[in-house]
Amino acid sequence: MNKLAAGILFCLAASLAAAPALADCAVKAPPGLVTPGSLTVGSNMSTPPQMFIDAGQPAGFEIDLSRALAQTMCLKPQFVNIAFGGLFPGLGARKFDYITSGLGITPQREQVFDFVPYLVGGIQLVVRKDSGLHFKDENGLCGHSVATISGTTQARAIERVNQMVCKPNQKIDLKYFPSFNDAVIQLRKKSSDVAFVDWAFASYVTNLMPELAIGSPIISGRPEVPRNKLGMALRKGDKPLADAVTAAMHELEKNGEYAKILDKWHLRNGDIRKPA
């Protein structure tokens, strides 16, 4: 064999070894991705332990899960960190394949977007430990100032209480901020009495900051307010992508990788396979 032929064979063998074979992909990548060969994910990376920036890199449960989903489809994960308010418009403008940012699946959102569930959610109150405040549920918040994110499950719950429960002179002073982290900063500064956040973030932040305390049980989870599911949001009607992400999610559940990621971030209480 001459040197030229040997060199060609060597390069071919090296390229085949470097590229994943189609048979290695547990799930076939869908057509029409924003960037061919990549899974482009939009997220507001400001809410540990689910998605945040650590040493300049995306980190957290939802980030690890997206990486695993991409690997299952032999795709390269690409993450775009964006303000929460830009997530849904960005998805509609095809800046991402899907968005993941602790998004509760609600009937209103399902009218506009498709979802692939990945975690059982829940909402919880955080207070300053020295305040002595504790609430059975959100109905007890009348007369208090509450910090949360606009457009979230938490904000809608407070708006419902203001409309249906609180007396005119005892309305909740609802303050909107770009992230749960910002809401907790306001709580620490005593600019609000309560921060209304996801249960996973409540657990994380109260363990990290000893001056804060859990101010309620997980508020959802009772018959009138069931625990919601969190999901990756996709453009409505993008069936090939929804089918591929769903199949990849099922593969991670089957091979144990989903459980490993839950355990890494201490989120077994949110296992999507458990009854909500």
Describe the structure.
By secondary structure, the protein is an alpha/beta fold. The chain has two domains: 24-120 and 228-270, Periplasmic binding protein-like II (D-Maltodextrin-Binding Protein, domain 2, 3-Layer(aba) Sandwich), CATH 3.40.190.10; 123-214, Periplasmic binding protein-like II (D-Maltodextrin-Binding Protein, domain 2, 3-Layer(aba) Sandwich), CATH 3.40.190. Helix content is 34%, strand content 21%. The chain has helices at residues 3-18, 61-72, 87-92, 107-110, 153-164, 180-188, 199-208, 239-255, 257-264; strands spanning 38-43, 52-54, 57-59, 76-81, 98-99, 113-120, 123-128, 145-149, 173-177, 194-198, 212-214, 229-235. The chain has a five-stranded mixed beta sheet, with helices on both faces. The chain has a three-stranded parallel beta sheet with strand order 4-1-5. The chain has a two-stranded antiparallel sheet with strand order 2-3. Strand 8, helix 5 and strand 9 (173-177) form a beta-alpha-beta unit. It is globular.
